[in-house]
C-alpha cells in the first residue's frame, strides 16, 4: 500500500494551527533496528575478541594446574619412597644403588626410582623429567637446556613457586612447567656422606634439581579456539535472530501506528467518515485507537459547532437569510465579477408601517411578519439574485444581470406587489408595504460600500415620496445626503450654541373673542443657513436621538416664557411621537413645571395620533399620568390618521385640533365643511373643546364660527412671533380685547 504524504497538511478544523507537520522523518523500525544492530554488533565483537583468549587462557590454566599437580605428585612420591622405602631398606641392610638393575640385591636410589617412574609415566601427551645442575656420576650427559637453566635460576630464588613457559617443540605447541626438587632431611645425610655425590654441603630445603612436566597443548588451544568461534557464531546467529524478531515485532507495532497516523491525518483534515482501526484491541494501541475515536467524535461536534457559528455569523437567526456581513461579501464578489462582465443592481428595502405593526400587535407578530416577508422576497428573485436581512425591517437584494434600469424596475415592482398583499399571522390579518431604493453598478463604481450607500439614499427618497414606491439613486441625492449629514452634525451643537428659539402663535377664543393663549413653535437660527423650520430638523432629531433633549428644552423654555404672561393665558407645546414613546415625557413635564413654577393648568400638551400608535396599557397610563399632573391634553392634527375616533373613545382629551388641511379647503369643498362640522359635533358630544389651526381668511373664520368651533389660530390673526414681540402683542391685545369685525 502506498504511504500517504503526511509532510504538510492544511487543517481548517484546528483554527490555531495553520500547518500540521506530520512527516515521518525516522521510522520506529529504524529507531528500533539501529540500536539493536549496534548492540548485537558490539556484543559479537566483544565475544569474538575476548572469548577465544578467555577460553584459551582457561584451558592453559587447567593444563598448568594439571602439570603442577603431576610435578607435586612426583615430589610426594620421591619423599615417600625416600623416607618409607629406602630408609627402612638400608636400615635392614639392603643396599640402594643407581645401578640396581645390574645388582639383584640392591634397590634403586630415590632419584633413579623417580626417573624410572617418570619414564614409565611419560607418553605422547605428557613427559615428566628430573634434571639438576649437580648430576651424579653416570648422569653427566644430562645437560640443562635454556628453559631448564632459567627455571633453575627462578626456582632457586622461589623454591615454592613454579616456572611456566609455552614453546614449540617438534612442531607442537608445548606447555612446560617446572617445580623445585628440594632436599629432605632423609636425603641430606646420605648425599653429604656419599663420596660420589657431586655436592656434599646440602642443607634441608636446598633446591637440588627440577621436576619438569611437558604437555603438548596444541589440541587444547585448537579446541578452545574452535569452541570460541562456535560461541561467536552462535552469538551472531542469536543476534541476527533477535534483530529479525525485533523487526517482525516492530513491524507489527508500526503498521497499526501508521494506520492510526492516517486516521489522525483524516481527523486533522476534517474528515469525520474514516473508520478508526484497532479499537477492539486490548493493549496500548487499542487504548490509543479508542482515544482517537473519542477525539473524532469531539472533532465532529466541534466541526458542527464551528459550522453553526460560521452560519450564525453570516445569517440572520430569525429569517435564515444572509446578514449584512455576508451580503457585504457577496456585494464585493459581485463587484469583482462585474469588472469581468455583468452589470447588477442593489435594492435596499424597508417595510412601511412595520413599527406600528410591531408595537400594536406585539413583537411575536412582528417577527412572524418578517419571516413571511423573507419567504415572499425569496419567491420574487431570480436564480442568481442574492438577498439579505440587514437588520430590523430592512432587507437588501443583489440583482444579477441587471443590464438596464427597466430590469431593476421590474424586480422592484414585483417586490412591492408581492409584499402589498395582506398577511395572516396568528389568526390576524396584517398589512404592510415596502419602499425600495435602487443603485446600479457602473464602470465608475469604486466600492461595494458606495453602492449600498447610494441604494440607501434612494430608499430614503422613496420613504419621503410617500412610501410603497421605488426610486433610483441620483447624483443630487448624494449632495442632499451630505447636506443632511452636515445639518445633523450642526443640530447636535444647536442647544449648547443657543441657536434654538421659540416663536409663539396666538390662539383666539371664539366664545369670548379674546386672546386665550399661544402655541409654542420651535425655530433653528442656523449660523449659515438662516432660519431652519421644524419640518426640516425635527425628523432628524428623532432619528439621531436628540428629540428628548430638544423636547425638554422646548418644554422648559415655553413654561418659563408663559410664566411671565397674564395668568389667564395658556401655552400649547407640541410633543413629538418619539419623545412621547421614550417614557421620559412625564419627567420632562414635571421638571419644566417645577423649575418655572407655571401652574399645570396653563400647560397644554399637543399629541398627534402617531404618538399613540402603540395602543397599549403603557400608552394610556402615560396619558393619564400627564393629565393627573393638571395639564391639559389635546389631540393635534385630528382626522389625518386612520384611528382618531378610536383614541378619542379610549381617552378623555381636553381638546381636539382640526388639521389646517381641512380648514384650508372649507370654502372650496363641501367634504371639508362636513368633516369640520362632524368634528365640532363630536367635540360637543364628548365635552371637548375644538381648535382650528391654519385660519387665513375671514370666510374661513366665519364658517368655523357657524360650525361651533371654540378656538382658532392662524395668519389671519398673527404669524408666530418671537418672545419679545409676543409680549408686546399681549399688551396690545389686552387693550383691544375683541377681534376685528
TrEMBL record:
Residues 342-475 form the GGDEF domain. The chain crosses the membrane at residues 27-50, 227-249. Keywords: Membrane, Transmembrane, Transmembrane helix. GO terms for biological process: signal transduction. SUPFAM superfamilies: EAL domain-like, HAMP domain-like, Nucleotide cyclase. InterPro entries: Biofilm_reg_signaling (IPR052155), EAL_dom (IPR001633), EAL_sf (IPR035919), GGDEF_dom (IPR000160), HAMP_dom (IPR003660), Nucleotide_cyclase (IPR029787), Rev_trsase/Diguanyl_cyclase (IPR043128), Tll0287-like_dom (IPR021796). Residues 484-734 form the EAL domain. Residues 251-304 form the HAMP domain. PANTHER family: BIOFILM ARCHITECTURE MAINTENANCE PROTEIN MBAA (PTHR44757:SF2), DIGUANYLATE CYCLASE DGCP (PTHR44757). This is EAL domain-containing protein. It comes from Oricola cellulosilytica.
Amino acid at each position: 500500500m502506498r504511504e500517504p504524504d503526511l509532510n504538510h497538511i492544511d487543517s481548517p478544523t484546528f483554527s490555531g494551527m495553520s500547518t500540521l507537520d506530520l512527516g515521518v522523518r525516522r521510522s520506529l523500525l529504524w529507531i528500533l533496528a539501529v540500536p539493536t544492530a549496534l548492540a548485537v554488533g558490539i556484543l559479537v565483537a566483544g565475544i569474538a575478541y575476548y572469548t577465544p583468549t578467555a577460553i584459551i587462557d582457561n584451558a592453559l590454566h587447567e593444563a598448568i594446574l594439571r602439570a603442577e599437580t603431576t610435578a607435586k605428585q612426583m615430589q610426594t612420591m620421591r619423599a615417600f619412597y625416600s623416607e618409607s622405602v629406602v630408609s627402612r631398606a638400608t636400615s635392614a641392610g639392603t643396599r640402594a644403588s643407581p645401578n640396581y638393575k645390574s645388582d639383584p640385591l640392591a634397590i634403586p636410589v630415590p632419584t633413579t626410582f623417580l626417573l624410572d617412574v617418570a619414564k614409565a609415566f611419560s607418553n605422547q601427551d605428557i613427559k615428566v623429567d628430573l634434571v639438576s645442575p649437580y648430576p651424579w656420576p653416570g648422569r653427566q650427559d644430562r645437560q640443562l637446556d635454556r628453559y631448564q637453566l632459567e627455571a633453575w635460576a627462578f626456582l632457586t630464588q622461589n623454591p615454592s613457586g613454579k616456572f611456566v613457559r609455552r614453546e614449540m617443540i617438534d612442531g607442537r605447541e608445548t606447555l612446560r612447567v617446572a617445580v623445585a626438587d628440594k632436599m629432605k632431611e632423609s636425603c641430606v645425610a646420605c648425599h653429604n656422606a656419599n663420596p660420589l655425590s657431586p655436592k656434599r654441603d646440602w642443607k634441608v630445603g636446598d633446591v637440588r634439581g627440577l621436576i619438569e612436566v611437558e604437555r603438548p597443548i596444541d589440541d587444547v588451544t585448537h579446541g578452545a579456539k574452535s569452541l570460541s568461534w562456535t560461541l561467536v557464531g552462535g552469538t551472531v546467529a542469536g543476534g541476527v535472530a533477535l534483530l529479525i524478531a525485533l523487526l517482525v515485532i516492530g513491524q507489527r507495532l508500526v503498521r497499526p501506528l501508521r494506520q492510526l497516523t492516517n486516521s489522525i491525518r483524516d481527523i486533522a483534515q476534517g474528515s469525520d467518515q474514516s473508520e478508526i482501526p484497532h479499537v477492539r484491541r486490548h493493549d496500548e494501541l487499542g487504548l490509543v485507537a479508542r482515544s482517537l475515536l473519542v477525539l473524532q467524535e469531539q472533532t465532529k461536534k466541534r466541526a458542527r459547532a464551528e459550522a453553526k457559528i460560521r452560519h450564525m455569523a453570516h445569517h440572520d437567526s430569525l429569517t435564515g437569510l444572509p446578514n449584512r456581513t455576508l451580503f457585504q461579501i457577496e456585494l464585493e464578489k459581485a463587484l469583482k465579477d462585474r469588472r469581468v462582465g455583468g452589470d447588477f443592481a442593489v435594492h435596499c428595502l424597508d417595510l412601511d408601517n412595520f413599527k406600528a405593526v410591531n408595537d400594536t400587535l406585539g413583537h411575536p407578530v412582528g417577527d412572524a411578519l418578517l419571516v413571511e416577508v423573507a419567504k415572499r422576497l425569496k419567491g420574487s428573485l431570480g436564480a442568481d439574485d442574492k438577498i439579505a436581512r440587514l437588520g430590523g425591517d430592512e432587507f437588501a437584494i443583489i440583482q444579477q444581470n441587471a443590464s438596464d434600469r427597466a430590469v431593476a424596475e421590474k424586480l422592484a415592482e414585483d417586490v412591492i406587489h408581492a409584499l402589498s398583499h395582506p398577511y395572516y399571522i396568528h389568526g390576524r390579518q396584517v398589512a404592510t408595504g415596502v419602499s425600495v431604493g435602487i443603485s446600479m453598478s457602473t464602470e465608475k463604481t469604486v466600492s461595494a460600500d458606495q453602492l449600498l450607500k447610494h441604494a440607501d439614499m434612494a430608499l430614503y427618497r422613496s420613504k419621503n415620496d410617500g412610501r410603497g414606491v421605488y426610486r433610483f439613486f441620483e447624483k443630487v441625492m448624494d449632495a442632499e445626503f451630505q447636506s443632511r449629514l452636515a445639518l445633523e452634525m450642526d443640530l447636535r451643537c444647536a442647544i449648547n450654541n443657543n441657536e434654538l428659539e421659540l416663536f409663539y402663535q396666538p390662539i383666539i377664543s371664539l366664545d369670548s373673542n379674546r386672546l386665550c393663549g399661544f402655541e409654542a413653535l420651535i425655530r433653528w437660527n442656523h449660523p449659515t443657513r438662516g432660519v431652519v423650520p421644524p419640518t426640516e430638523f425635527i425628523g432628524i432629531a428623532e432619528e439621531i436621538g436628540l428629540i428628548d433633549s430638544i423636547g425638554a428644552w422646548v418644554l422648559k423654555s415655553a413654561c418659563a416664557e408663559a410664566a411671565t404672561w397674564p395668568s389667564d393665558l395658556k401655552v400649547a407645546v407640541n410633543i413629538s411621537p418619539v419623545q412621547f414613546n421614550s417614557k421620559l415625557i412625564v419627567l420632562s413635564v414635571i421638571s419644566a413645571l417645577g423649575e418655572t413654577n407655571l401652574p399645570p393648568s396653563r400647560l397644554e400638551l399637543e399629541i398627534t395620533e402617531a404618538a399613540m400608535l402603540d395602543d397599549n396599557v403603557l400608552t394610556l397610563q402615560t396619558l393619564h399620568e400627564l393629565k393627573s399632573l393638571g395639564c391639559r391634553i389635546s389631540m393635534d392634527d385630528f382626522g389625518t390618521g386612520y384611528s382618531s375616533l378610536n383614541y378619542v373613545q379610549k381617552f378623555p382629551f381636553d381638546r381636539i385640533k382640526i388639521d389646517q388641511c381641512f380648514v384650508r379647503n372649507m370654502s372650496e369643498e363641501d367634504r371639508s365643511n362636513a368633516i369640520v362640522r362632524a368634528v365640532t359635533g363630536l367635540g360637543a358630544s364628548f365635552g371637548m373643546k375644538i381648535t382650528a389651526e391654519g385660519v387665513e381668511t375671514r370666510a374661513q373664520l366665519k364658517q368655523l364660527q357657524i360650525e361651533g368651533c371654540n378656538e382658532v389660530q392662524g395668519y389671519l390673526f398673527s404669524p408666530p412671533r418671537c418672545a419679545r414681540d409676543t409680549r408686546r402683542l399681549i399688551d396690545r391685545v389686552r387693550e383691544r380685547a375683541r377681534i376685528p369685525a
